[in-house]
Amino acid sequence: MSGPGGAGRRGLPFVVSAPSGTGKTTICRALVARDPGVVFSVSHTTRAPRAGERDGVDYHFVDETTFEALVAQGAFLEHARYAGHRYGTSWAAIEAPLAAGRDVLLEIEIQGARQVRERLADACLVFLLPPSRAELERRLRGRGTDRADQVERRLAIAREEFQAAPLFDAFVVNDVMEQAVEDLAAVVAAARRGGRAALPGAAGLAAVRRRLAPDLAGWLPTDQGRVRERPIP
Ligand code: 5GP
Fold this sequence. Notes:
This protein is of the alpha/beta class. It has a 5-stranded parallel β-sheet, with helices on both faces. A 4-stranded mixed β-sheet has the order 4-3-6-5. The chain is built from 9 helices and 9 strands.
């Protein structure tokens, strides 16, 4: 089968990363549902399935021993530990669809995005951001699953994750969900036309800095990615 680019086209890997509470899963699922040229990469994880999650569909649920054996075999494009559990994208999850000309969407956290950046030159990395710190906090509290101190912890983690923004090729703000899906689809369309080079990179980061509420724009690193050193008192 050939993908949207025509016969012989190899698919593109897309990575979507975002701080927890940004609505990443909803947006990624919406994109995959509307675009048959994009398939979702099913990761391996050692965490237990949540209600409604299916093995082989949402994740490949495995134990630590199996995960470790896969790492030793070199089965993973990337893998990371997150909130006490292991997560990884296997080469097997992406190779067949890419070879068949389909684009593959990896919804993964930031350590994994870094590894993909190092290993796949054509990967298109998209950073999804909430519109403001207040909105991020509201969404984290709204989930009702976290205690107040955990919300604070997640906010602190999000702030750290923002430091990785210069690694990314494109930026999407999830203010209105439908618009964020449109914006992500536009990133995919641009990359299909011109590859990763067609994505805005540093210019996109500058643009998103202007778009975010000041309480959140201040979390983005300055100096083209290097956090400005604090003066020694
Ligand atoms: P959850 O347990 O809520 O499904 O996912 C926790 C975090 O792990 C999310 O940020 C999710 O994007 C990330 N994640 C899911 N699969 C992978 C993966 O294969 N590799 C990495 N590095 N992160 C993943």
